[in-house]
Amino acid sequence: MRRSDVSKAALYHGDRYDAVPVGFYGAFLGTRDDLANVMVWILPRYSRPRRSWMMIDAPAGCIALDDKQHVLLVLLAPLVPQDDEEDDLLVRVERASAEGARRWPGRTVHLAVAVAGMLSQRTEMLLSARRIWILDRNWIVRNVSEWGMESMVRPLFDEVDDGRQDPFGPAYEAMTRQRSAAATPEPAPEEDTAQVHYGQIYLLDGEGDLPHFDLAQTTSVGIIGAEPGAALMMTGLHTGTVGFKVSVHDHDPAPDLDGYDDVVEVSFESRDGTASLVGWAGEYSRDLPPLPAGPGTYRLRYHTRGMDAAAAAEHSDVPIDEYLLQIWPAPPSPAVTLKRTSQQRAYWQDRR
Q1: What are the φ and ψ backbone dihedral angles of 36, each rounded to 5 degrees?
Q2: What is the pLDDT of residue 164?
Q3: Which fold has domain 190-351?
Q4: How far is 159 from 174, CA to CA, in rounded Å?
Q5: CA distance 104 to 252
Q6: Domain 7-183, CATH among 3.40.1350, 2.60.40, 1.10.1740, 1.20.1050
Q7: With 80 as the cut, is the pLDDT of residue 13 above it?
Q8: pTM confidence score
């Protein structure tokens, strides 16, 4: 196997960290240690700003990160499971989850699966339904590329699983993204965009944990749901960059019914007077201005535009769908729909 530019990473072996050369082998699928090296390099750089992760001892076949309150337990799957092996992966996930709960009873354990390739749609759906973060080939390529380490990407994925050359594999995809980015206009300001995964994004107060996917189905409007400290909003795009503006007010700012396809409202309780926009598994985070009335109940008005086109595209590094979230103090009141246009909006409301 070929080696390219060599970086250093620390691989945890129970009682020590070993500084090992991360060769990022051509086929990459030879050992679980290869995949562990990559994840150990990425995850500490990727963790959300409000947390400071430390590598800790983990069950066999996993790596784990700890921030004293939460544990991120990553199951390593260096060989992409075939159709008849998917159930075995799910069994391993259940065992890892049970072991994590046993080892860290006083902490919230978040489970992820790191896979050197792409899972089938069925497997991805089953894992997503269990709120399991999937760190697949595209996630690895995107994050390594964003940090300017393309030299790690090319030797990592230049070959398919059986070792044959794959001219349209992830290395090709990474190169295509770079060329496309160079040819596109200047990106929108960071405060006007957000990163989404699995078609969802969250609003959290300082005490809130990541909500369950089903939260959006607890209200009559379908695309946004709330519980104390957390709200979950659906997006049309599955994975990538969306336009997302948030405005905080001390009074009702009035909806923009002409500028958006769908407009809905729900009530939201902030327990500490703060709020952040947070992505799937905390992979993205944007702090918002302090809420004007401090702790208490607020109204969320969620505007959506372009959900149908984004849902058809599934993945995009430039915004296709756009959102506006208005926040202001208001007493609790039922969820309402002010405007309903898109098929995606109808789908999520009818699905409820």
Answers
A1: -60, -40
A2: 37
A3: Substrate Binding Domain Of DNAk; Chain A, domain 1 (2.60.34)
A4: 14
A5: 44
A6: 3.40.1350
A7: no
A8: 0.51
